[in-house]
Design goal:
heterodimer; A: 3 domains; B: alpha/beta; Glycerol-3-phosphate (1)-acyltransferase; seven-stranded mixed sheet
Chain lengths: 313, 213
Amino acid sequence: MSSTTVDILLLAFGSFGILIALTFLGEVLRARQEPGTQNPVLETYMTRIQSWWGMVAFVGTALLVGKLGVMVLFAFCSFAALREFLTLTTKAQADHISLALAFFVVLPLQYLFVGMGWTGMYTVFIPVYAFLLLPIVSALRGNAEKFLIRVAETQWGLMIAVFCVSHVPALINLTITENSDRAVLMIAFLVMVVQFGDLLEYFFGRRIGRNKIAPGLSPKTWEGVICGVLCAMVIGSLLSWITPFDVFGAAALAGASCLVGMLGSLVFAAIKRDRGVKDWSHLIPGQGGFVDQLDSVIFAAPIFYHLVRFFYG
Amino acid sequence: MKFLRHFAARIVGHALRIFARAITAVRADWQGIEPVPRQRVYFANHTSNGDMPMIWAALPSALRREVRPVAAADYWLKNKLRAFVGPEVFNCVLVDRRPEVKDKPMDKIIAALDEGSSLIIFPEGNRNMTDELLLPFKAGLYNMGVARPDVDLVPTWIANLNTIMPKGEIIPLPLICTVTFGAPIHVKEGETKDEFLARASTALAELAPETKS
């Protein structure tokens, strides 16, 4: 086994260990309840843990398979996220072809470019080509009603669900050390610091949170975010052995990604509030939709990618 | 041969259901009823040719086996493929809408109810191409409610399908579709046809998600 495989397995077993502990905790709490009663908070917690089992299994398997596994997994995530996003945007029948192109041409091409490692193409494909060409396709149908809103919301969906998400697998293309197959571990690093940061932000926000960041939008508090970011930095430095970064570099990158991710989820909260929905969809039990689950990773991925490229590339 | 056709129909049915779920992640939202096997008439809004398969795909398999969509014979008997999919895959009750035919649609519908089947019907009669939420209902729903008063009439709202597959487009868009089942209604004693149809229409319209400006 290569050292990369060993490290992925170690991370997977570590995550499974944490999940076993959390599942065990939930079952103990369940067993201590009065017979016949149900605590809704506990049930939500258990559903979430179940979804987390699935996610660790999926991401772990994808990383073990390697490049192809990661591409397929994140292409699917992009598809699910784009579907959730465009379900809620403004559109007319005149946009039918351009929306179909977004799903069936732009999305696969973006992942093809990422898979081929064509950096120059996948960094401009959606911000330049899709941005300019899809509105032309819509305009050809000659319906001007809410035109700017329609094309702007579609482009936003593509940027978020395809461009940003595809920057997670794109990390594979960054060759920082000689041993290029270790790049896949940066994906594990990014996903783990951001998701653990989120979890701890939620935990500390509940415990000691006082001052809301954006009242009326989200229950996130400054105290929770600061604690979450600090925890992410600690986790990042502890995980520095899987990355090409030194301890301080890993902590700084973890902190930056986590902070951007948390503030990014405020953006999604604002969109959901405007559209009058609580979750993006129902596809992940206990969590809502793919966008609900990925929101902070979506914002963190391109920033992490470019910071690594700038400082280490 | 008959066995083979039946088997093929089952396979095609599963394939269509998986396709519908993969594309639209179709979800059933049971607001007013439980997904339990009871004899019901699901009456739904109609904007797209995908409406009937979508309700069919959203139902759990125990309910799907008992349900028969009421559909137009002139559409489903147009060619051999449709004649296979409509009557055999979806197990449609085919009715002839032409007034000159002796074979009355309501007789076939009542016969299907008496066999114990549940039904899917589109009481607007045609696909709604207007900006109105619903077209005026045809009398069929009322006649069913009067003839078989024990059967639950369940309002069923299909959201988003006119964007997923509008008339005249070939490629379906993979957007999320929700099928909402409301509380069942029955024809009240002494209620006239118009009163009942207005009440049914309101019950269905109330399931529509709030339209955003």
